[in-house]
């Protein structure tokens, strides 16, 4: 990775215990972490927990971070994804513990589709995807990672990433066909 | 770029060429200019992009940001750390020696302590020299 890491300097100041740098890093990364975890888990509270846990790892890693070996943002995405998978696994193991929100099957016939309704319906379809397909869409569409970086985070080839993306998007299109036609 | 590749890219990355792999965008633009019918492929992919955009992300509250920032490592103490191995190492050895000597003198076992000190200093002298 020859290009310089835009987060490296800030991370170095964090390692030195600079509170302003810590605040700046939180301001820069927290919205991205919430975006990732929110879309992966479909639960804002759990997304906050994931973000906090991810920063605990950032604080530990900062003094040991060696610029040039990996991009910090890529590493952070992997950390956050692992934390999301931990929670998804726990949900499977304890299915009665706090299942994700189940909303009714859509708006009634006498009211139009509000933006919030659409958002909820798409969120449900996203949660219904296989996890790896959802991960690919979250990384590429919402987090706007490049294909090579997203594939690195997922530990797959670019071809495999494209396959996951395409299958995920096809499934979403089928699940949301009524919305797409509206 | 083939028509199939164009369709596959739209299927994977959506209807905005700016989201497509950097190294394939120019070829895609050229193909799109030559095959206007491909605009329909992009439009279909964009319709799903628009739906995906409707899913809100949790917003980052100021309280959460503050809580996380407050959990960051505390400032380091003045930079003594790099002086540790050399200066402080030798200083520590000297302090140990002094303490040991004092204790031994009080116990009136000076000769044993001196022998021990010589042994200790011999054992550790290579490390002290290296550090310095």
Structure description:
- The complex is a heterodimer of chains A (182) and B (132).
- Chain A contains nine helices and no strands.
- Chain A is an all-alpha fold and 182 residues long.
- Chain A folds into two domains: 96 residues, RNA polymerase sigma factor, region 2, helix turn helix motif (Rna Polymerase Sigma Factor, Chain: A, Orthogonal Bundle); 70 residues, Winged helix-like DNA-binding domain superfamily/Winged helix DNA-binding domain (Arc Repressor Mutant, subunit A, Orthogonal Bundle), CATH 1.10.10.
- The longest helix of chain A is centred in the first third of the chain and has 23 residues.
- Chain A is globular and about 55 Å long.
- Chain B is mainly α and 132 residues long.
- Chain B folds into two domains: 51 residues, no CATH class; 50 residues.
- Helices cover 71% and strands 0% of the residues of chain B.
- In chain B, helix 1 packs parallel to helix 3.
- The longest helix of chain B is centred in the C-terminal third of the chain and has 23 residues.
- Chain B is elongated and about 65 Å long.
- The C terminus of chain B is likely disordered.
Strand and helix layout:
The complex is a heterodimer of chains A (about 180) and B (about 130).
Chain A lengths: L7 H8 L3 H23 L2 H18 L10 H22 L21 H14 L2 H12 L4 H8 L3 H18 L1 H5 L1
Helix pairs in contact in A: 1-2, 2-3, 2-4, 2-6, 3-4, 4-7, 6-7, 6-8, 7-8
Chain B lengths: L2 H11 L8 H13 L3 H16 L8 H9 L13 H23 L3 H22 L1
Helix pairs in contact in B: 1-3, 5-6
Helix share bin of chain A: over 70%
CATH architecture of the largest domain in chain A: Orthogonal Bundle
- Model regions low in confidence, pLDDT < 50 over at least 5 residues of chain B: 100-132
**Whole-Å distance between the termini of chain B?**
64 Å
Mean pLDDT across all residues of chain A, rounded?
A: 88
Would you tell me which CATH topology of the largest domain in chain A applies? Answer: Rna Polymerase Sigma Factor, Chain: A
Taking the sheet with the most strands of chain A, its summary is: none
Biggest interchain interface, per-side counts: A-B, 53 and 33 residues
Please trace the helix and strand order of chain A, writing H or E for each element: HHHHHHHHH
Given the C-alpha coordinates, what overall shape of chain B results? elongated
Largest sheet of chain B: none
């Amino acid at each position: 990775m020859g290009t310089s890491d835009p987060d490296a300097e800030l991370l170095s100041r964090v390692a030195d215990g600079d509170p302003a740098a810590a605040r700046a890093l939180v301001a820069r990364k927290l919205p991205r972490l919430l975006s990732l975890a929110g879309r992966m888990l479909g639960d804002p509270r759990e997304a906050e927990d994931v973000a906090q846990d991810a920063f605990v790892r950032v604080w530990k890693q900062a003094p040991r971070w060696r610029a040039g070996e990996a991009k910090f943002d890529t590493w952070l995405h992997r950390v956050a994804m692992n934390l999301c998978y931990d929670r998804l696994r726990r949900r499977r193991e304890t299915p009665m513990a706090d299942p994700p929100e189940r909303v009714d099957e859509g708006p009634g016939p006498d009211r139009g589709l509000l933006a919030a309704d659409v958002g909820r319906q798409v969120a449900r379809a996203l949660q219904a995807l296989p996890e790896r397909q959802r991960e690919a869409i979250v990384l590429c569409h919402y987090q706007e990672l490049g294909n090579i970086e997203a594939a690195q985070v997922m530990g797959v080839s670019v071809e495999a990433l494209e396959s996951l993306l395409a299958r995920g998007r096809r499934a979403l299109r089928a699940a949301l066909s009524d919305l797409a036609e509206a | 770029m083939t028509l199939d590749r164009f369709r596959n890219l739209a299927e994977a990355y959506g209807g905005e060429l700016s989201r497509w792999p950097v190294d394939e965008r120019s070829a895609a633009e050229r193909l799109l200019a030559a095959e206007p019918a491909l605009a329909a492929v992009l439009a279909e992919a964009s319709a799903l992009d628009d739906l995906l955009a409707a899913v809100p992300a949790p917003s980052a509250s100021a309280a959460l940001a503050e809580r996380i920032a407050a959990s960051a490592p505390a400032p380091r103490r003045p930079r003594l750390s790099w002086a540790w191995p050399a200066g402080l190492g030798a200083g520590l050895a000297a302090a140990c020696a002094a303490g040991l000597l004092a204790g031994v003198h009080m116990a009136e076992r000076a000769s044993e302590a001196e022998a021990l000190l010589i042994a200790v200093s011999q054992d550790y002298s290579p490390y002290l020299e290296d550090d310095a």
